[in-house]
Specification:
Layout: H1 2-31, E1 46-53, E2 75-77, E3 86-91, E4 97-104, E5 114-116, H2 118-123, E6 133-139, E7 159-160
Parallel strand pairs: 1-5, 2-4, 4-7
Antiparallel strand pairs: 1-6, 2-5, 3-4, 3-6
Length: 162
């Protein structure tokens, strides 16, 4: 009788093992998106962290893109985003946002994920106090037409676009 119980226990263990494998395999199969319904749209970049801003002493120096840093423009430095990428940067505390163009590489401190121009930082209320802000970066879709030269928030006080 003892041998029969051990044999049955092994069979139950094997059945449990195979049922577990089947369950995991079915979960994996359900998580895959069928190719005919998969979207061809590119995934836009999203990142959260801390932002810093350029020192005024860097005004006029060359950036990684070759253009001169202008503290009055809406630009930023990021380590990995392609130069020319437009991103929306939102201050998590105030809700204010600004759209900047990546034209430089940096920041090289592990504490920060983006360096903003003085104008962008001022709009996000970073220039008083600690000099940094907790932010969200969201890549903006490419537009066929260049951005207008006016930088007018819409509605007033909510955001700033290039």
């Amino acid at each position: 009788m003892l041998i029969f119980a051990k044999v049955m226990q092994k069979k139950i263990s094997l059945i449990y093992f195979f049922l577990t494998i089947l369950f995991v395999a079915s979960l994996h199969a359900q998580s895959n998106i069928p190719m005919d319904t998969a979207s061809n749209a590119p995934t836009l970049f999203y990142q959260e962290g801390k932002a810093s801003y350029y020192s005024n002493s860097l005004h006029g120096r060359r950036t990684a893109s070759g253009e001169k840093y202008n503290k009055k423009k809406l630009t930023a430095a990021h380590l990995t985003l392609p130069l020319g990428t437009r991103v929306k940067v939102t201050n998590k505390k105030t809700g204010k946002w600004v759209i900047v163009t990546i034209n430089d590489r940096g920041p090289y401190s592990k504490k920060y994920i983006i360096d903003l121009s003085y104008r962008a930082a001022k709009h996000l209320c970073m220039t008083q106090g600690s000099g940094y802000a907790r932010i969200v970066i969201e890549e903006q879709p490419k537009k066929d037409q260049p951005w207008p030269q006016k930088h007018v928030p819409e509605p007033a006080g909510q955001g700033l676009q290039k």
